[in-house]
Write a structure and sequence with these properties.
The complex is a heterodimer of chains A (160) and B (163). With 160 residues, chain A is mainly alpha-helical. Chain A has helices at 6-14, 16-23, 25-53, 63-91, 93-98, 100-125, 133-156. In chain A, helix 6 packs antiparallel against helix 7. Classes of the chains: A mainly alpha (160), B mainly alpha (163). The interface between A and B is medium-sized, with 29 and 28 residues.
Chain lengths: 160, 163
């Protein structure tokens, strides 16, 4: 299946955008720093929300209110990592295609995004008491672990 | 004894060479450094933003700070240990990297900012704990911390890039 989409990776790498980013070491490095900023904030939102769902922090604030207050931070961070991630990807798409860490990263990213906008969204915004505490706590932990998976696999791309 | 000769000595030790040449230890330590960074900085931003009066303004400052403190401290501890190991393995290359020195200076500034906050305005926190917008000095401490951590991440990444 991965072979079928190879032409897309080749096309991305040969695009003008791919060329432009590859040509400047600084553009790549700065894009990577912004990618890291976005990931740090994104993991930060997952951590603080998980702590609330576990009942470890901010117990006086309903989880729903916290989730709503964090939403703009989640969206901004997500937009940042996705845009910078695409820029980094097109500059070395063929290398990514061959890279096992990249495949794991995409898998974790896919799972993390689905989890974030389905299970986490529903449980964190549900009325208190509608879901058992263990389900809420587990949801927070799983969200954090999925984003950690994205981070670790992402860092590993450079090691292959 | 100069800093250079200390770095030369560290670089020549067997443990430093072994670390540099290891296939798995280096990526694992480096990966742990990045994950602990995401934990500690990912949590400290909420406290800094609360001090700056930008988020969770209806919650007391201490309600944001106290629960995240143990996790933040563990994250920072792991970050320091893994950072120290990375330095041990790459001492001479760090010595020659302007980004490394910039990072060390900014880490010291971040430490001073934390010390200044806790020794001054935080002593009187009971007076402003519930205020949505904390006093100017606390807001400055929050903004300073956010800016310094952003810069530390930036030069840290650049350092790894241009080593």
């Amino acid at each position: 299946m991965w072979d079928y989409i190879y032409p897309f990776f080749g096309w991305a790498e040969q695009s003008w955008l791919g060329h432009a980013i590859r040509e400047s070491k600084w553009v790549f490095a700065i894009t990577e720093v912004l990618h890291l900023f976005g990931l740090t904030v994104l993991i930060g939102t997952a951590l603080i929300l998980a702590m609330r769902l576990l009942g470890w922090a901010l117990q006086t604030k309903p989880a729903r209110d916290l989730a709503c207050e964090l939403t703009p931070w989640v969206y901004t961070a997500l937009a940042t990592v996705l845009v910078t991630g695409i820029l980094l990807f097109v500059s070395e798409a063929v290398k990514c295609w061959r890279n096992p860490a990249f495949r794991y990263k995409m898998l974790f990213l896919f799972l993390a995004l689905i989890f974030q906008f389905t299970v986490l969204r529903v449980l964190s915004r549900a009325d208190e008491g509608r879901f058992p505490p263990i389900a809420r706590g587990l949801t927070g932990i799983v969200a954090v672990l999925l984003w950690f998976g994205v981070a670790v696999a992402g860092r590993s791309i450079a090691f292959f | 004894m100069s800093i250079l000769s200390i770095c030369q000595y560290i670089d020549s030790t067997a443990s430093s060479t072994a670390f540099r040449e290891s296939l798995y230890v280096f990526p694992i330590v480096e990966g742990t450094h990045v994950v602990s960074l995401a934990i500690s900085v990912g949590l400290i931003i909420w406290f800094d933003l609360r001090l700056a009066g930008l988020i969770l303004t209806k919650q007391p400052v201490s309600a944001v700070f106290h629960p995240i403190r143990p996790f933040m401290l563990i994250g920072f501890g792991v970050m320091f240990i893994t950072g120290g190991i990375l330095f041990w393995g790459l001492a001479l290359r760090c010595y020659g990297s302007p980004f490394f020195w910039a990072k060390m200076i900014m880490l010291i500034l971040a430490g001073l900012n934390i010390a200044l906050y806790h020794l001054t305005i935080d002593r009187r926190r009971a007076e402003w704990d519930d205020q949505p917008i904390p006093p100017l000095q606390a807001r400055i401490a929050g903004f300073t911390s956010l800016i310094l951590w952003a810069l530390i991440i930036t030069v840290g990444r650049m350092m790894a890039y241009f080593l």
